Amino acid sequence: MSLEMLTDLYEFSMANGYYQTLPHDKQARFDVFYRNAPDEDSFVLSAGLMQIIEEVKNWHFTKEDIDYLRALNKFSDEFLTFLKDAKNKCTINAMTEGTPLLPREPFLTISGPLIEVQLLETLVLNIFNHQSLIATKAWQITHAAQGRAVMEFGARRAQGPDAATYGARAAIIGGCTSTSNVLAGQKFNIPVAGTMAHAWIESFPDELTAFKAWAKIYPDTASLLVDTYDVVKSGVPNAIKVFQELKAQGHRPLSIRIDSGDITRLAKKARQMLDDAGLSEVKITASNALDAHIVKSLLNEEAPIDNFGIGERLITSSSSPVLGGVYKMSALENKGQWVPKIKISNSREKITLPGNKQVYRLYSRNDPKHAFADIIALADEKLRDKITAIDSDVHATSDVVTLTDFTARPLLHQVLAGQKAAPIETDTFAIQKYAKEQIAELPEETKRLVNPDHYPVYLTKKLADLQKKLIAEYEEVKL
Protein backbone atom coordinates (compact mmCIF):
# COMPACT_ATOMS: atom_id res chain seq x y z
CA MET A 1 0.00 0.00 0.00
CA SER A 2 1.32 3.42 -0.98
CA LEU A 3 1.49 5.71 2.06
CA GLU A 4 1.91 9.12 0.43
CA MET A 5 -1.79 9.78 0.94
CA LEU A 6 -1.56 8.94 4.64
CA THR A 7 -1.71 12.64 5.32
CA ASP A 8 -4.23 14.81 7.14
CA LEU A 9 -6.22 17.05 4.84
CA TYR A 10 -4.89 20.20 6.45
CA GLU A 11 -1.38 19.24 5.34
CA PHE A 12 -2.50 19.32 1.71
CA SER A 13 -4.42 22.55 2.34
CA MET A 14 -1.31 24.24 3.78
CA ALA A 15 0.91 22.84 1.03
CA ASN A 16 -1.48 24.19 -1.59
CA GLY A 17 -1.38 27.55 0.17
CA TYR A 18 2.42 27.51 0.36
CA TYR A 19 2.57 26.82 -3.37
CA GLN A 20 0.42 29.84 -4.16
CA THR A 21 2.01 32.31 -1.72
CA LEU A 22 5.67 31.38 -1.13
CA PRO A 23 8.65 30.38 -3.28
CA HIS A 24 8.24 26.74 -4.24
CA ASP A 25 11.76 25.89 -3.15
CA LYS A 26 11.54 27.63 0.23
CA GLN A 27 13.31 25.42 2.77
CA ALA A 28 12.12 24.44 6.24
CA ARG A 29 13.29 22.25 9.08
CA PHE A 30 11.08 20.28 11.49
CA ASP A 31 11.89 18.26 14.63
CA VAL A 32 10.16 15.06 15.77
CA PHE A 33 10.10 14.64 19.55
CA TYR A 34 7.80 13.80 22.46
CA ARG A 35 7.07 15.51 25.79
CA ASN A 36 5.93 12.69 28.09
CA ALA A 37 6.80 9.00 28.05
CA PRO A 38 3.98 6.43 28.24
CA ASP A 39 3.23 4.74 31.57
CA GLU A 40 5.14 7.53 33.36
CA ASP A 41 8.38 5.89 32.21
CA SER A 42 11.60 7.88 32.06
CA PHE A 43 12.41 7.25 28.39
CA VAL A 44 11.05 5.97 25.08
CA LEU A 45 12.80 3.28 23.06
CA SER A 46 12.92 4.75 19.57
CA ALA A 47 11.73 2.63 16.64
CA GLY A 48 10.42 3.05 13.12
CA LEU A 49 13.41 4.68 11.44
CA MET A 50 13.81 1.93 8.83
CA GLN A 51 10.26 2.37 7.58
CA ILE A 52 10.44 6.17 7.73
CA ILE A 53 13.54 6.19 5.51
CA GLU A 54 11.98 3.71 3.09
CA GLU A 55 8.76 5.70 2.76
CA VAL A 56 10.34 9.15 2.54
CA LYS A 57 13.02 8.01 0.09
CA ASN A 58 10.39 6.68 -2.33
CA TRP A 59 7.84 9.47 -1.72
CA HIS A 60 5.79 10.28 -4.82
CA PHE A 61 2.17 10.54 -5.96
CA THR A 62 0.49 8.26 -8.48
CA LYS A 63 -1.99 9.27 -11.17
CA GLU A 64 -4.76 7.80 -9.01
CA ASP A 65 -3.63 9.98 -6.09
CA ILE A 66 -3.70 13.13 -8.20
CA ASP A 67 -7.09 12.24 -9.68
CA TYR A 68 -8.52 11.80 -6.18
CA LEU A 69 -7.07 15.09 -4.97
CA ARG A 70 -8.45 16.87 -8.02
CA ALA A 71 -11.89 15.41 -7.35
CA LEU A 72 -11.91 17.10 -3.92
CA ASN A 73 -12.10 20.49 -5.66
CA LYS A 74 -9.87 22.08 -3.02
CA PHE A 75 -6.51 22.51 -4.76
CA SER A 76 -5.19 24.46 -7.71
CA ASP A 77 -4.28 22.69 -10.95
CA GLU A 78 -0.77 24.14 -10.70
CA PHE A 79 -0.29 22.61 -7.25
CA LEU A 80 -1.54 19.22 -8.44
CA THR A 81 0.82 19.36 -11.42
CA PHE A 82 3.64 20.10 -8.97
CA LEU A 83 2.67 17.05 -6.89
CA LYS A 84 2.51 14.83 -9.98
CA ASP A 85 6.24 15.36 -10.61
CA ALA A 86 7.36 15.61 -6.96
CA LYS A 87 10.05 13.32 -5.58
CA ASN A 88 11.75 13.46 -2.23
CA LYS A 89 14.26 16.28 -1.87
CA CYS A 90 14.35 16.16 1.93
CA THR A 91 17.26 15.37 4.23
CA ILE A 92 16.80 13.47 7.47
CA ASN A 93 19.14 13.44 10.46
CA ALA A 94 18.12 10.89 13.06
CA MET A 95 19.15 8.87 16.07
CA THR A 96 20.03 5.24 15.48
CA GLU A 97 16.94 3.06 15.76
CA GLY A 98 16.82 1.53 19.23
CA THR A 99 18.33 4.55 21.00
CA PRO A 100 16.64 5.43 24.32
CA LEU A 101 15.05 8.82 23.71
CA LEU A 102 14.34 11.40 26.40
CA PRO A 103 11.61 14.07 26.48
CA ARG A 104 12.09 17.06 24.15
CA GLU A 105 15.04 15.47 22.32
CA PRO A 106 14.61 15.33 18.54
CA PHE A 107 14.51 11.71 17.38
CA LEU A 108 14.91 13.09 13.91
CA THR A 109 15.06 16.39 12.09
CA ILE A 110 13.83 16.69 8.54
CA SER A 111 14.87 19.51 6.22
CA GLY A 112 13.78 20.30 2.68
CA PRO A 113 11.26 22.24 0.60
CA LEU A 114 8.54 23.50 2.93
CA ILE A 115 5.76 21.98 0.81
CA GLU A 116 7.29 18.51 0.94
CA VAL A 117 8.32 18.60 4.58
CA GLN A 118 4.81 19.66 5.53
CA LEU A 119 3.22 16.81 3.58
CA LEU A 120 5.40 14.25 5.37
CA GLU A 121 4.26 15.19 8.89
CA THR A 122 1.43 12.70 9.44
CA LEU A 123 3.26 9.80 7.83
CA VAL A 124 6.44 10.29 9.85
CA LEU A 125 4.58 10.76 13.13
CA ASN A 126 2.34 7.75 12.51
CA ILE A 127 5.36 5.46 12.08
CA PHE A 128 7.44 6.94 14.90
CA ASN A 129 4.63 7.13 17.47
CA HIS A 130 3.33 3.61 16.92
CA GLN A 131 6.57 1.67 16.64
CA SER A 132 8.33 3.56 19.44
CA LEU A 133 5.30 3.02 21.69
CA ILE A 134 5.32 -0.75 21.12
CA ALA A 135 9.11 -1.02 21.43
CA THR A 136 8.92 0.83 24.76
CA LYS A 137 6.10 -1.39 26.04
CA ALA A 138 8.07 -4.48 24.98
CA TRP A 139 11.10 -3.19 26.86
CA GLN A 140 9.02 -2.73 30.01
CA ILE A 141 7.68 -6.29 29.79
CA THR A 142 10.99 -7.96 28.95
CA HIS A 143 12.68 -5.95 31.71
CA ALA A 144 10.09 -7.28 34.16
CA ALA A 145 10.67 -10.83 32.85
CA GLN A 146 14.26 -10.75 34.14
CA GLY A 147 15.85 -12.56 31.21
CA ARG A 148 13.04 -15.04 30.54
CA ALA A 149 11.91 -15.31 26.93
CA VAL A 150 8.91 -13.17 25.95
CA MET A 151 6.96 -14.12 22.82
CA GLU A 152 4.78 -11.52 21.11
CA PHE A 153 1.33 -13.07 20.63
CA GLY A 154 -0.90 -10.11 19.80
CA ALA A 155 -1.65 -10.05 16.05
CA ARG A 156 -5.37 -10.77 16.45
CA ARG A 157 -5.82 -7.89 18.91
CA ALA A 158 -3.71 -5.30 17.09
CA GLN A 159 -5.40 -2.32 15.47
CA GLY A 160 -5.09 -3.64 11.93
CA PRO A 161 -2.61 -5.66 9.83
CA ASP A 162 0.02 -2.94 9.65
CA ALA A 163 0.00 -2.40 13.40
CA ALA A 164 0.27 -6.15 13.96
CA THR A 165 3.20 -6.59 11.58
CA TYR A 166 5.30 -3.52 12.30
CA GLY A 167 4.29 -3.80 15.95
CA ALA A 168 5.82 -7.29 16.04
CA ARG A 169 9.08 -5.86 14.67
CA ALA A 170 9.01 -3.10 17.29
CA ALA A 171 8.38 -5.72 20.00
CA ILE A 172 11.56 -7.54 18.95
CA ILE A 173 13.51 -4.27 19.12
CA GLY A 174 12.13 -3.89 22.65
CA GLY A 175 13.46 -7.30 23.68
CA CYS A 176 10.96 -9.99 22.66
CA THR A 177 12.41 -13.23 21.32
CA SER A 178 9.79 -14.23 18.75
CA THR A 179 6.35 -13.48 17.34
CA SER A 180 3.27 -15.49 16.50
CA ASN A 181 2.77 -13.30 13.41
CA VAL A 182 3.97 -15.29 10.39
CA LEU A 183 3.87 -12.25 8.10
CA ALA A 184 6.19 -10.35 10.45
CA GLY A 185 8.42 -13.40 10.62
CA GLN A 186 8.63 -13.53 6.84
CA LYS A 187 9.02 -9.81 6.31
CA PHE A 188 11.60 -9.11 9.03
CA ASN A 189 13.31 -12.50 9.48
CA ILE A 190 11.94 -12.91 13.01
CA PRO A 191 11.54 -16.34 14.63
CA VAL A 192 7.89 -17.39 14.78
CA ALA A 193 6.47 -19.28 17.74
CA GLY A 194 3.16 -20.78 18.77
CA THR A 195 1.56 -23.99 19.94
CA MET A 196 -2.14 -24.72 19.76
CA ALA A 197 -5.48 -23.19 20.68
CA HIS A 198 -8.16 -24.74 22.85
CA ALA A 199 -10.03 -25.61 19.63
CA TRP A 200 -7.44 -28.32 18.88
CA ILE A 201 -8.22 -30.13 22.13
CA GLU A 202 -11.97 -29.63 21.71
CA SER A 203 -11.77 -31.19 18.23
CA PHE A 204 -10.87 -34.61 19.66
CA PRO A 205 -12.87 -37.02 21.84
CA ASP A 206 -10.76 -36.17 24.89
CA GLU A 207 -7.73 -34.19 25.97
CA LEU A 208 -5.28 -37.10 26.03
CA THR A 209 -6.17 -38.10 22.48
CA ALA A 210 -5.65 -34.49 21.37
CA PHE A 211 -2.23 -34.30 23.05
CA LYS A 212 -1.14 -37.63 21.53
CA ALA A 213 -2.20 -36.53 18.07
CA TRP A 214 -0.23 -33.29 18.42
CA ALA A 215 2.84 -35.10 19.70
CA LYS A 216 2.71 -37.52 16.78
CA ILE A 217 2.82 -34.63 14.30
CA TYR A 218 5.32 -32.47 16.24
CA PRO A 219 7.37 -34.91 18.35
CA ASP A 220 10.40 -32.63 18.74
CA THR A 221 8.53 -29.38 19.39
CA ALA A 222 5.62 -30.60 21.48
CA SER A 223 4.23 -27.77 23.58
CA LEU A 224 0.85 -28.56 25.11
CA LEU A 225 -1.88 -26.17 26.25
CA VAL A 226 -3.06 -27.61 29.56
CA ASP A 227 -5.91 -25.38 30.74
CA THR A 228 -8.77 -26.31 28.38
CA TYR A 229 -10.51 -28.31 31.12
CA ASP A 230 -8.52 -28.48 34.35
CA VAL A 231 -4.80 -27.79 34.65
CA VAL A 232 -4.11 -29.94 37.71
CA LYS A 233 -6.65 -32.74 37.33
CA SER A 234 -6.32 -33.43 33.61
CA GLY A 235 -4.10 -31.02 31.67
CA VAL A 236 -0.76 -31.66 33.36
CA PRO A 237 -1.37 -35.39 34.04
CA ASN A 238 -2.22 -35.95 30.36
CA ALA A 239 0.77 -33.89 29.27
CA ILE A 240 3.01 -36.00 31.52
CA LYS A 241 1.77 -39.21 29.89
CA VAL A 242 2.50 -37.87 26.41
CA PHE A 243 5.87 -36.42 27.36
CA GLN A 244 6.99 -39.71 28.94
CA GLU A 245 6.04 -41.53 25.75
CA LEU A 246 8.01 -39.00 23.70
CA LYS A 247 11.08 -39.43 25.91
CA ALA A 248 10.86 -43.22 25.58
CA GLN A 249 10.90 -42.73 21.79
CA GLY A 250 14.02 -40.54 22.00
CA HIS A 251 12.31 -37.17 21.63
CA ARG A 252 12.72 -34.17 23.92
CA PRO A 253 9.48 -32.72 25.31
CA LEU A 254 9.31 -28.94 25.12
CA SER A 255 6.77 -27.19 27.36
CA ILE A 256 3.29 -26.72 28.70
CA ARG A 257 1.33 -23.48 28.48
CA ILE A 258 -1.09 -22.14 31.09
CA ASP A 259 -3.50 -19.54 29.71
CA SER A 260 -6.02 -19.00 32.52
CA GLY A 261 -6.61 -19.22 36.24
CA ASP A 262 -4.31 -18.38 39.12
CA ILE A 263 -1.05 -18.58 37.18
CA THR A 264 1.23 -18.63 40.23
CA ARG A 265 -0.65 -21.42 42.01
CA LEU A 266 -1.10 -23.49 38.86
CA ALA A 267 2.51 -23.04 37.73
CA LYS A 268 3.86 -24.13 41.13
CA LYS A 269 1.66 -27.22 41.17
CA ALA A 270 2.50 -28.04 37.55
CA ARG A 271 6.22 -27.67 38.23
CA GLN A 272 6.01 -30.06 41.16
CA MET A 273 4.06 -32.61 39.11
CA LEU A 274 6.47 -32.42 36.17
CA ASP A 275 9.52 -32.73 38.41
CA ASP A 276 8.04 -35.69 40.29
CA ALA A 277 7.47 -37.38 36.93
CA GLY A 278 11.12 -36.92 35.94
CA LEU A 279 10.33 -34.11 33.50
CA SER A 280 12.33 -31.27 35.02
CA GLU A 281 13.44 -30.21 31.52
CA VAL A 282 9.87 -29.34 30.48
CA LYS A 283 9.35 -25.59 30.50
CA ILE A 284 6.28 -23.70 31.69
CA THR A 285 4.93 -20.87 29.56
CA ALA A 286 2.37 -18.40 30.90
CA SER A 287 0.00 -16.26 28.84
CA ASN A 288 -3.46 -14.70 29.46
CA ALA A 289 -3.57 -10.88 29.20
CA LEU A 290 -0.22 -10.31 30.90
CA ASP A 291 1.66 -7.03 31.15
CA ALA A 292 4.86 -5.81 32.83
CA HIS A 293 3.31 -5.40 36.26
CA ILE A 294 1.62 -8.83 36.22
CA VAL A 295 4.86 -10.44 35.02
CA LYS A 296 6.77 -8.71 37.82
CA SER A 297 4.15 -9.81 40.36
CA LEU A 298 4.28 -13.44 39.18
CA LEU A 299 8.04 -13.54 39.55
CA ASN A 300 7.91 -11.81 42.92
CA GLU A 301 5.59 -14.63 43.98
CA GLU A 302 8.26 -17.08 42.76
CA ALA A 303 6.03 -18.56 40.08
CA PRO A 304 8.22 -21.13 38.24
CA ILE A 305 7.62 -19.69 34.79
CA ASP A 306 10.24 -20.04 32.08
CA ASN A 307 8.61 -18.11 29.22
CA PHE A 308 5.85 -15.60 28.67
CA GLY A 309 3.46 -15.14 25.77
CA ILE A 310 2.21 -11.56 25.71
CA GLY A 311 -0.61 -10.47 23.43
CA GLU A 312 -3.06 -7.61 23.62
CA ARG A 313 -1.41 -5.59 26.37
CA LEU A 314 1.84 -5.51 24.42
CA ILE A 315 0.73 -5.04 20.82
CA THR A 316 -1.82 -2.36 21.81
CA SER A 317 0.17 -0.93 24.75
CA SER A 318 -3.20 -1.02 26.47
CA SER A 319 -2.14 0.71 29.70
CA SER A 320 -0.89 3.74 27.76
CA PRO A 321 -1.97 3.43 24.13
CA VAL A 322 -0.68 6.74 22.77
CA LEU A 323 2.79 8.20 22.35
CA GLY A 324 2.30 11.91 21.75
CA GLY A 325 5.21 12.56 19.43
CA VAL A 326 4.98 15.91 17.65
CA TYR A 327 6.39 17.49 14.49
CA LYS A 328 7.35 21.12 14.99
CA MET A 329 9.07 23.68 12.78
CA SER A 330 12.45 24.72 14.16
CA ALA A 331 13.82 26.87 11.31
CA LEU A 332 12.76 28.45 8.04
CA GLU A 333 14.95 29.62 5.17
CA ASN A 334 14.76 33.31 4.22
CA LYS A 335 16.89 34.69 1.39
CA GLY A 336 19.41 31.88 1.78
CA GLN A 337 19.66 32.16 5.58
CA TRP A 338 18.19 29.81 8.15
CA VAL A 339 15.94 31.69 10.61
CA PRO A 340 15.18 29.93 13.92
CA LYS A 341 11.46 29.45 14.60
CA ILE A 342 9.60 28.81 17.84
CA LYS A 343 6.11 27.83 18.96
CA ILE A 344 5.08 29.73 22.09
CA SER A 345 2.41 28.60 24.53
CA ASN A 346 0.98 29.50 27.91
CA SER A 347 2.04 26.00 28.89
CA ARG A 348 5.82 26.12 29.34
CA GLU A 349 6.35 22.50 28.34
CA LYS A 350 4.80 23.22 24.93
CA ILE A 351 7.28 25.96 24.04
CA THR A 352 9.53 24.47 21.38
CA LEU A 353 13.30 24.57 20.96
CA PRO A 354 14.32 26.71 17.98
CA GLY A 355 17.10 26.25 15.46
CA ASN A 356 19.13 23.38 14.06
CA LYS A 357 20.14 21.12 16.95
CA GLN A 358 22.33 18.20 17.97
CA VAL A 359 21.77 15.90 20.94
CA TYR A 360 24.69 14.53 22.95
CA ARG A 361 24.77 11.70 25.47
CA LEU A 362 27.21 12.53 28.27
CA TYR A 363 29.49 10.02 30.00
CA SER A 364 31.76 10.52 32.97
CA ARG A 365 35.43 10.32 32.06
CA ASN A 366 35.85 8.08 35.09
CA ASP A 367 32.99 5.77 34.05
CA PRO A 368 32.76 5.83 30.24
CA LYS A 369 30.25 2.95 30.07
CA HIS A 370 27.52 4.80 31.94
CA ALA A 371 25.63 7.89 30.78
CA PHE A 372 24.65 10.48 33.37
CA ALA A 373 22.80 13.08 31.27
CA ASP A 374 21.94 14.29 27.77
CA ILE A 375 22.36 17.80 26.44
CA ILE A 376 20.66 19.48 23.49
CA ALA A 377 22.85 22.02 21.71
CA LEU A 378 22.71 24.09 18.57
CA ALA A 379 24.24 22.08 15.74
CA ASP A 380 27.05 24.56 15.12
CA GLU A 381 28.11 24.64 18.80
CA LYS A 382 31.29 23.03 19.96
CA LEU A 383 30.93 21.64 23.46
CA ARG A 384 33.60 22.95 25.80
CA ASP A 385 35.20 21.01 28.64
CA LYS A 386 33.15 23.05 31.11
CA ILE A 387 29.54 23.87 30.27
CA THR A 388 26.90 25.98 31.94
CA ALA A 389 23.68 24.12 31.15
CA ILE A 390 19.98 24.57 31.84
CA ASP A 391 17.68 21.72 32.81
CA SER A 392 15.07 21.27 30.07
CA ASP A 393 12.51 19.99 32.59
CA VAL A 394 10.16 22.92 33.11
CA HIS A 395 9.36 21.62 36.60
CA ALA A 396 12.99 21.49 37.75
CA THR A 397 13.55 23.41 40.99
CA SER A 398 17.22 24.14 40.25
CA ASP A 399 17.68 24.64 36.56
CA VAL A 400 21.30 25.82 36.08
CA VAL A 401 24.18 23.37 36.43
CA THR A 402 27.86 23.24 35.55
CA LEU A 403 29.02 20.14 33.67
CA THR A 404 32.66 19.05 33.65
CA ASP A 405 34.79 15.91 33.25
CA PHE A 406 32.61 14.29 30.59
CA THR A 407 32.81 12.84 27.12
CA ALA A 408 29.99 13.59 24.69
CA ARG A 409 28.59 11.29 22.00
CA PRO A 410 26.46 12.94 19.27
CA LEU A 411 23.21 11.07 18.64
CA LEU A 412 21.86 12.64 15.42
CA HIS A 413 23.37 11.51 12.12
CA GLN A 414 22.35 12.03 8.48
CA VAL A 415 20.44 9.01 7.25
CA LEU A 416 18.76 10.30 4.08
CA ALA A 417 19.39 12.96 1.45
CA GLY A 418 16.88 12.91 -1.38
CA GLN A 419 16.88 9.40 -2.84
CA LYS A 420 20.24 8.52 -1.26
CA ALA A 421 20.02 6.71 2.07
CA ALA A 422 22.99 6.14 4.34
CA PRO A 423 23.60 2.53 5.41
CA ILE A 424 21.57 1.73 8.52
CA GLU A 425 21.06 -1.45 10.48
CA THR A 426 18.03 -3.39 9.27
CA ASP A 427 18.56 -6.69 11.11
CA THR A 428 15.92 -6.57 13.85
CA PHE A 429 17.94 -8.53 16.38
CA ALA A 430 21.03 -6.40 15.75
CA ILE A 431 18.86 -3.37 16.55
CA GLN A 432 17.63 -5.18 19.68
CA LYS A 433 21.22 -5.83 20.73
CA TYR A 434 22.09 -2.16 20.21
CA ALA A 435 19.02 -1.10 22.22
CA LYS A 436 19.98 -3.37 25.12
CA GLU A 437 23.51 -1.94 25.12
CA GLN A 438 22.22 1.63 25.12
CA ILE A 439 19.67 0.98 27.86
CA ALA A 440 22.39 -0.67 29.95
CA GLU A 441 24.30 2.61 29.89
CA LEU A 442 21.47 4.47 31.63
CA PRO A 443 21.38 4.77 35.44
CA GLU A 444 19.57 1.85 37.07
CA GLU A 445 17.20 4.13 38.96
CA THR A 446 15.84 5.50 35.66
CA LYS A 447 14.80 1.97 34.62
CA ARG A 448 12.38 1.28 37.47
CA LEU A 449 8.90 0.33 36.25
CA VAL A 450 7.34 2.29 39.11
CA ASN A 451 8.40 5.85 39.90
CA PRO A 452 11.63 5.90 37.88
CA ASP A 453 14.12 8.61 38.64
CA HIS A 454 14.43 11.64 36.36
CA TYR A 455 17.22 11.31 33.81
CA PRO A 456 18.43 14.87 33.20
CA VAL A 457 18.27 16.47 29.78
CA TYR A 458 19.99 19.83 29.59
CA LEU A 459 20.09 22.71 27.14
CA THR A 460 23.26 24.57 26.37
CA LYS A 461 23.17 28.18 27.45
CA LYS A 462 23.37 29.26 23.82
CA LEU A 463 20.24 27.29 22.92
CA ALA A 464 18.39 28.42 26.05
CA ASP A 465 19.33 32.05 25.32
CA LEU A 466 18.06 31.72 21.73
CA GLN A 467 14.74 30.40 23.02
CA LYS A 468 14.47 33.30 25.51
CA LYS A 469 15.37 35.81 22.79
CA LEU A 470 12.61 34.60 20.47
CA ILE A 471 10.08 34.61 23.30
CA ALA A 472 11.08 38.17 24.20
CA GLU A 473 10.79 39.27 20.55
CA TYR A 474 7.26 37.88 20.44
CA GLU A 475 6.36 39.68 23.66
CA GLU A 476 7.62 42.98 22.19
CA VAL A 477 5.54 42.51 19.05
CA LYS A 478 2.49 41.66 21.13
CA LEU A 479 2.89 44.86 23.14
SSE order and pairing:
Blueprint lengths: L8 H13 L5 E7 L10 E2 L3 H9 L5 H9 L5 H9 L5 E4 L5 E2 L6 E6 H6 L1 H24 L4 E4 L8 H13 L4 E2 L2 H7 L9 H5 L4 H11 L5 E3 L5 H18 L6 E4 L4 H14 L6 E4 L5 H9 L6 E4 L1 H4 L10 E9 L2 E4 L16 E8 L2 E12 L8 E5 L8 E4 L2 E5 L2 E5 L2 E2 L6 H13 L16 E4 H18 L1
Parallel strand pairs: 6-7, 6-11, 8-9, 9-10, 10-11, 15-21
Antiparallel strand pairs: 1-5, 1-12, 2-4, 3-5, 3-19, 12-13, 14-15, 14-18, 16-17, 16-21, 19-20
Helix pairs in contact: 2-6, 3-4, 6-7, 6-13, 7-8, 7-15, 10-11, 11-12
Describe the structure using short key phrases:
globular, nicotinate phosphoribosyltransferase, nicotinamide phosphoribosyltransferase activity, six-stranded parallel beta sheet, phosphoprotein, glycosyltransferase, 479 residues, TIM Barrel
Describe this structure in words.
- GO terms for molecular function: nicotinamide phosphoribosyltransferase activity; nicotinate phosphoribosyltransferase activity.
- With 479 residues, this protein is α/β, with parallel strands linked by helices.
- The chain has helices spanning 9-21, 49-57, 63-71, 77-85, 114-119, 121-144, 161-173, 182-188, 198-202, 207-217, 231-248, 263-276, 292-300, 312-315, 428-440, 461-478; strands at residues 27-33, 44-45, 91-94, 100-101, 108-113, 149-152, 178-179, 223-225, 255-258, 283-286, 307-310, 326-334, 337-340, 357-364, 367-378, 387-391, 400-403, 406-410, 413-417, 420-421, 457-460.
- The protein folds into 2 domains: 9-134 and 321-478, nicotinate phosphoribosyltransferase, CATH 3.20.140.10; 135-315, TIM Barrel (Alpha-Beta Barrel).
- The chain has 16 helices and 21 strands.
- Strands 13-12-1-5-3-19-20 form a 7-stranded antiparallel beta sheet. It has a 6-stranded parallel beta sheet with strand order 7-6-11-10-9-8.
- Strand 8, helix 11 and strand 9 form a beta-alpha-beta unit.
